[in-house]
Design goal:
heterodimer; A: mainly alpha; about 65% helix; about 0% strand; B: alpha+beta; Thrombin, subunit H; 2 domains; six-stranded antiparallel barrel; 4 helices
Chain lengths: ~180, ~290
């Protein structure tokens, strides 16, 4: 399966799950709104340049917005995490390995603890931006914080469930021939 | 020199980031202000296709339930029909209206069109419903939407050629004029974006006798909704000592979680009523507008 095809497949799958499963099930509580689709951006290969990351993030968010009738809301959040992602990866990758041996961010390539921090920070950023834009017009600050924490927690739970259920087979990528 | 180039490269990425953020926010705020934004039109056409396909599959699993409800409704329709008509006051009427009237000399006020729900949300603070009928089928803005059991669901805010977008009662900007079934006293139905199971009824004076369990129905004074259709039941009475009005929490009669088929109701006199209303307000120069 080529890299491009794999990612296109993921894109469609994540969006369908987000629109037709996560947005449809009645929520446990009004503060707890799970979302998973942005994992697509977290899983993009290392080789994607920061600029392309931004463009892909924008398109991902906008596609979801088409379905949820909130143009720009998810796009803004996705562009934010796509912008922060390269900096985080630069900080979190082990120094001693000169070049990336792996294709994309995963518990194997970053190790569990750094990967957890990577996911935690990006999830928190995504939800903070989303919830802030959504609640700008009304709602109190405590509501904002509660919703942010609850949504982040449930999304993290989902992400790591996915991570454990579907381990991506990580082949080494040699430096020869890029 | 190398550092300068590096700086420019980094700056360029940041510039793209800012640009995309601004574009996103522009989308977000222009859409929320004007429901007619071009964006939603094309979005309706694009996602409408996908939603319609998905709904086709989903409908299959709910046919039994829906059949039962349709049967129930058909039953009750015989009783409801006369309510769509109003008597023409022939004593004072000099010019006959061009609105089609039946042989009993009553003119039609409301026209019902069936439609299927193809997208629905209840989880957001601003919930919209998408229908599979659009302007090609005669749907325009400001038509009201009733569920298949006749309960109030929302108001059409935008229509593309083949799809229409409905602002649900579960929307923080929705305001509907409703009345108590028992006494006919009216108030404004709103939603605070908190619990999808509870709507708020404001503006009902404390002199009105209200009890938990009382029925709330669409008001005779609403421009969009036909009168006498169920909205919900009073679930809780909050008596704020600071004002002369009740704050009632109303459990909605429509089941927003599993809407499938709805009626889009057109008030055939809507434009005339609204025009008269606006002219009057302009004349009296009152900037405030009542909820419709």
């Amino acid at each position: 399966m080529s890299e491009l095809f794999r990612n296109i497949f993921r894109f469609i799958l994540f969006l369908l799950i987000e629109v037709y499963v996560l947005n449809r099930v009645p929520h446990l509580h009004r503060f707890i709104s799970p979302s998973l689709y942005f994992l697509f951006i977290l899983w993009l290969p290392f080789v994607v340049s920061p600029r392309w990351l931004l463009v892909i993030g924008f398109m991902t968010g906008l596609t979801l917005d088409y379905f949820t009738q909130t143009p720009g809301l998810h796009a803004a959040a996705c562009v934010l995490i796509a912008y922060v992602r390269p900096f985080l990866i630069a900080v979190l990758t082990p120094r001693d390995s000169g070049d990336f041996n792996y294709r994309e961010p995963s518990p194997q390539s970053l190790l569990w603890a750094p990967y957890f921090i990577y996911v935690l920070i990006l999830t928190l950023l995504h939800h903070a931006w989303l919830v802030m834009l959504e609640w700008m017009s009304f709602g109190s600050f405590s509501d904002f914080l509660l919703k942010l924490i609850a949504s982040t927690a449930i999304s993290l739970l989902l992400i790591f469930t996915v991570e454990l259920l579907f381990p991506r087979n990580m082949r080494f990528r040699t430096n020869v021939g890029g | 020199m190398r550092n300068v180039i590096l700086f420019i490269r980094r700056y360029f990425t940041f510039f793209i980031f800012l640009l995309l953020q601004v574009v996103s926010l522009w989308f977000l705020y222009t859409f929320n202000k004007f429901h007619q934004a071009q964006f939603s039109q094309s979005a309706n056409e694009l996602t409408g296709e996908v939603n319609a396909r998905y709904k086709k599959i989903e409908n299959f699993f709910a046919l039994g339930e829906e059949n039962r409800r349709v049967h129930q409704l058909n039953d009750s329709l015989f009783n409801l029909l006369p309510r769509q008509y109003a008597q023409v006051d022939t004593a004072r009427q000099l010019v006959r209206d061009t609105v089609p009237s039946d042989t009993l000399n009553r003119y039609r006020r409301y026209y019902f069109r069936p439609a299927a729900v193809i997208y629905n949300s209840t989880n957001s603070e601003k919930n919209y419903i998408q229908l599979d009928r659009g302007s090609l089928h005669g749907i325009t803005e400001n038509m009201s939407v009733l569920s298949s059991t006749g309960a109030a669901v929302g108001v059409v805010v935008n229509a593309s050629p083949r799809f229409a977008q409905v602002m649900s009662l579960l929307h923080v900007r929705q305001k509907v004029n409703v009345a108590l079934k028992k006494s006919g006293d009216f108030g404004t139905l709103e939603w605070d974006g908190e619990d999808p199971g509870l709507l708020l009824l404001k503006g009902l004076p404390k002199s009105v006798p209200v009890q938990v369990g009382d029925s709330v129905e669409t008001s005779r004074y609403s421009f969009n909704f036909p009168p006498g259709y169920p909205v919900g039941t009073v679930a809780e009475i909050v008596s704020d000592p600071g004002t002369n009005f009740f704050l009632l929490k109303v459990r909605p009669a429509a089941r927003f979680y599993n809407l499938q088929y709805v009626f889009v109701v057109e008030n055939l006199q809507y434009s005339e009523q609204v025009q008269l209303d606006e002219q009057t307000r302009k004349r009296i120069e009152d900037p405030k507008r009542n909820p419709r």
